[in-house]
Amino acid sequence: MTDVASSPSPASVPAEDPQEPRRGFSQVLRELADSEHERISIGRILEAFGDRAFGALLLLFALPNALPMPPGTSAILGAPLFFIALQLAIGAQRLWLPRFITERSLKREDFRTLAAKVEPWVAKLERLLKPRAEVMTSYVADRFTGLACFVLALILVLPIPFGNMPPAIAISAFALGIIERDGVAIGVGWAATAASFAILAAFSTAIVKLIEAFAQPVLSFFGF
Hey, which bits of 35-135 come out as E strands? Predict the structure, then answer.
């Protein structure tokens, strides 16, 4: 296994210090964009967010699926979500990802461009998000949140027309709730999870009825 924080650098973004006030997501994003590294890797993002890496990486891989993306994108971005959600569900204290994921990176300028687009929206959300409804962000609640994200990641990769958007929104809401310890955001995530299951059930029912509609004439032809 690879320890994502095993290769610190003098120019790296400082990790979260439990004795200091939490930096906002947008602040950490800005610090990453302003770092002196030529490339910004997933591993460096993990290091920068510290104990909030679970939420940060869930958001990173889920949010693009909530937007119109080329076919197959959900399958590619969904794979890392399995690793992250499963570890959240079992109560892992530190997020581990395979080296081939942690070493993936963007050029600093590309990351800065991305951060410049995302940061204003994140900053607006941060003004709405705050630690509250602690029962929804407790240790036990986080295990259920991780399990929900794991199941949602399974739904995310299914070839359902427009079916990847609700689970992506749900995981993104969970992620924001984890990052800011906001139980209301977690509640929004559970509501979106219910919507995802409803869409999956409707899609499954439609498929079964479609199969029955095509199968019935064939069975009748053969005398069944």
Answer: 39-41, 105-107
